[in-house]
Amino acid sequence: MRIAFYAPLKSPNHPVVSGDRQMARMLVKALEHGGHSVELASELRIYLRRPEPESFDALKIEVRGEAARLTKLWDRDGKPDLWFSYHPYYKAPDLIGPELASAFAVPYVTAEASYSRRRNTGLWADSQALVARAIKQAALNICFTQRDRQGLTNAIPDAALGMLSPFIDTSVFQELPVRGCPTRLVTVAMMRSGDKVESYRMLAQALGRIGHLPWTMSVVGDGPARDEVRAQFAGLPADRIEWLGAIEPAAVPDVLYRGGIYLWPGYGEAYGVAYLEAQAAGLPVVAQDIAGVPEVVRDGQTGFLTPPGDVAAFASAIARLLAHNDERIIMAAEARRFVLEERSLDGAAARLAELISKISAS
Questions:
Q1: Local structure of 101: helix, strand or coil
Q2: Which of 50, 213, 319, 327 is the least buried, fewest Cβ under 10 Å from its Cβ?
Q3: How far apart are CA 66 and CA 350, in angstroms?
Q4: DSSP code per residue over 227-239
Q5: pLDDT digit string (tens) for 19-70?
Q6: Which is higher by pLDDT, 117 or 327?
């Protein structure tokens, strides 16, 4: 099929590294891996940082221009067979695809769409109404987590839903890793306000509780909250923390291979691609049993998921893996098997092909 792909929040070509951009790229790869021809329909970013009507109105003007451009293009070169919209939600609704798909009788599909009733106030209520309308229109809404699926089911009972587990391109992790240092802890996360800072704060507090144990930590990440993040670790010995800053995605596997345990509390994580990468590199994970994290970490098998907000439990889980290397090795092997065998690009491509074939056959 010829598929028009669109990610309103962040184009696959966006210069800023993030989980959203990475998953958009992975979806394009998976679709192409399944034999489809994928074209990026638009790079117009629809992101409403704050509920400001003026910003929304300005975006709508740009949307009209993009819709006119695509209409002219499709009239000349023919319409696509399907419109695929990645991650539309109240701050980033797809304002282009639904109307074009309807006008050209093209099946409309979403992936990782979300709906939150608590956002139904002011301008957010208007943008969520557009998301809901798109979800109802969609021939299929692909959910990555049971949490998102339940949210859509509760809000839009008649929505057409399908499941696709979060995945990564495991090709860079196929070679057996050189065994890293079992007491080296690793985290990879952006440094921005909100949930990321809260996760860093909890991480620093937990490390402060296990200072009597032998460990060092490598931190990959940077961002506008860098100073606030580093301040959280000020009470820890400076020689125990290695601040690597932002590095190229291609360099991340090497950092993971050098480690022994992956740590990230995970406040607000939709699921967390970084957890999958860490496990593919053979690192058991310590995270919270929160948001979408249980979709990518198997508690007691590929790591430990601790109760939300419980710093003592989080620290205890880290200490357990530091003190019991045999258990860490067993979890590391299972973590690697889990991702390479169950969360690979090949598996995702096959699942996507199965889901899309039902649309084309209907």
A1: helix
A2: 50
A3: 32
A4: HHHHHHTTTS-GG
A5: 899 999 999 999 999 999 999 999 999 999 888 999 899 999 999 999 999 9
A6: 327
Listing DSSP states for 311-334 in one string gives: HHHHHHHHHHHHH-HHHHHHHHHH
Q: Domains in the chain, ordered, with CATH?
A: 2-167+344-361 (3.40.50.2000), 170-342 (3.40.50.2000)
Cα dihedral 46, 26, 188, 200 in deg (nearest 10): 40
The overall average pLDDT reported for the chain is 95
**70 close to 41: Cβ distance less than 8 angstroms:** yes
Q: Dihedral (C-alpha) 246, 257, 21, 93: value to the nearest 10 degrees?
A: -110
What's residue 119's pLDDT?
A: 84
Report the amino acid identity of residue 20.
Answer: D
112-126: b (≥16 Cβ within 10 Å) or e? bbbbeeebeeebbee
Residue 192, phi then psi, degrees to nearest 5: -140, 165
At 31, is the secondary structure helix, strand, or coil? helix
User: Which residue in this structure is represented by tokens 């117009």?
Assistant: 44
Q: Express each pLDDT in 252-307 by its tens digit.
A: 999 999 999 999 999 999 899 999 999 999 999 999 999 999 999 999 999 999 99
Binning pLDDT at 50, 70 and 90, where does residue 361 land?
A: low
- Dist. CA 44–CA 143, nearest whole Å: 23
Confidence of residue 201 (pLDDT cuts 50, 70, 90): very high
Indicate if the pLDDT at residue 358 is higher than 80. yes
Strands (E), the chain: 2-6, 37-40, 82-86, 108-111, 140-143, 161-163, 184-188, 216-220, 241-245, 261-263, 285-288, 303-306
Strands (E), 155-230: 161-163, 184-188, 216-220
Sheet of 161-163: strands edge to edge? 37-40, 2-6, 82-86, 108-111, 140-143, 161-163
